[in-house]
Amino acid sequence: MAAPMVRCCMRAVTSLCPNRVFTRLGKQCTVLPTFSNLLISDRPYSAKKQSSKTKPKSGTKGKTSEPEPVRKRKRFKPVLLSEPTDDVYLTWYYQRPIYEAEVAVDMLKKFQELDFTYPRQHVYADITLDMSMGKKKPLEPFEATVLLPHRFVDDFHKVVAFTENAEEAALAKENGAAFAGGFELVKSILDGEIQADYYVAVPAMLNKINSLRTVLNDKHPRAKNGSVSYDIPKMLSFFRACHTYKVEADHRVQSPIATLDMPTDHIVANKLAILKGCVWLQSLAYGSFVTRLFIRSSTSEGLQLKFERFVPQPASKEKAEEKVTEGDADTDDEEMQEAK
C-alpha cells in the first residue's frame, strides 16, 4: 500500500511543477532499479564534438602550428669483426670477405668438386652499377653487346646483311650471313618469313629499310652499336659471336660469362670484357660506375670480388688540384716569355 501512495503523490507534484523540472521522475519506470534509471541519459541529441584545432593566440592570426617531426631512433649496428679465428663461426658477426678474381674462381671449382654438381655449369657475373653518378637525371637501363675473348657456347647468331651490291652480298654470305640482299628482303621480314638475331646494313641502305623500324625495334641497324658500316666482314664476325647483356631495373647486370670447366684465366678475361663494356659510360668526374661485383656458378653462393684493378678509378682531389696549379704555373711562364 505504501508504494502506490508514494507513486500517486509524486504524480501530483510533477503535474503542478513545470515540465523542465523532474523530467526524469515523470518517466515510466522500467525493469531496472530507480537509481539506475537516473544514470541513463535521456537527451534526444548527441553531444557536441570538441574541435581538435586550438584557438590561435593573440598576435598569431593566420598561422597554423606545425607538428614537430618525429625523430627516428637510430638502430644500433654492432661493429663487425674482420676475420674469424676458427673454422666454425657465425657469418653475421664478421665482415663479408672480398676475394681476388683468380682466388674466387678456384673456390668455385672446389665447391663443384665437393658438391658433385655438373662440371660445365655456367659462371655468372653480378655487377651493381651507380646509374646516377651524382647527376640529377640517372641513366636508364640499357642493353649492350660485347665480344668475349673466349666463347663458351657453340652456336652462332643468325645475322641478316642489307646491301644492294652483288659483290658485297656474296662477301656477306661467305662470312656467315644467313641472308644477304637489298630491298627485296624487306617484304619477307614484314611477312615474318625471315627472322634473325641481328641485322646489319651498309649506310646506303638505311633510307630504304625505314619501314622496318617498327618491326625490328632495337634490332634495327644503327651506327651507334656498330651495325652500320661498309666493313661487312668485321660486322659479321662481331655480331655472329657477340654476347648480349642487359642492365635490369635494379641497376644490376646478371649475365653468364663462361663455364666452370674453362681455365681460370679465360673466365677472368671474359669477366674483364663484361666490365669494360659496362664502364664505357663512366665519367671519372663523378666517381666509380661499378659499386659491387660478385661471381657465382649455377649451384654455388656468390663471392664478392675486388674490382678496383679492373676499373679506372677517379683521381683524388689533391692530385686534381696539383694539376690545376701546374697548369696555371705553365701559363704564367709562357706569358713572361712572350712579354720578353
Keywords:
alpha/beta, single chain, 31% helix, 340 residues, three-stranded parallel β-sheet, 10 strands, 9 helices, five-stranded mixed β-sheet
What is the H/E string? HHEHEEEHEHEHHEEHEEH
Radius of gyration: 40 Å
Overall strand count: 10
End-to-end separation: 138 Å
Mean pLDDT across every amino acid position: 77
Shape, please?
extended
Number of helices: 9
Strand content: 5-15%
Main pleated-sheet profile = 5 strands, mixed
Helix content: 25-40%
**Low-confidence region ranges:** 20-42, 316-340
Helix/strand-derived category reads alpha/beta
Give me the side-by-side strand order of the main sheet.
Answer: 1-10-9-2-8
Give an overview in words:
This protein has 340 residues and is α/β, with parallel strands linked by helices. 31% of the residues lie in helices and 14% in strands. The chain has 9 helices and 10 strands. The strands form 3 sheets. It has a 5-stranded mixed β-sheet with strand order 1-10-9-2-8. Helix 3 packs across helix 8. The longest helix has 23 residues, at 317-339. The chain is extended and about 130 Å long. The protein starts with a helix and ends with a helix.
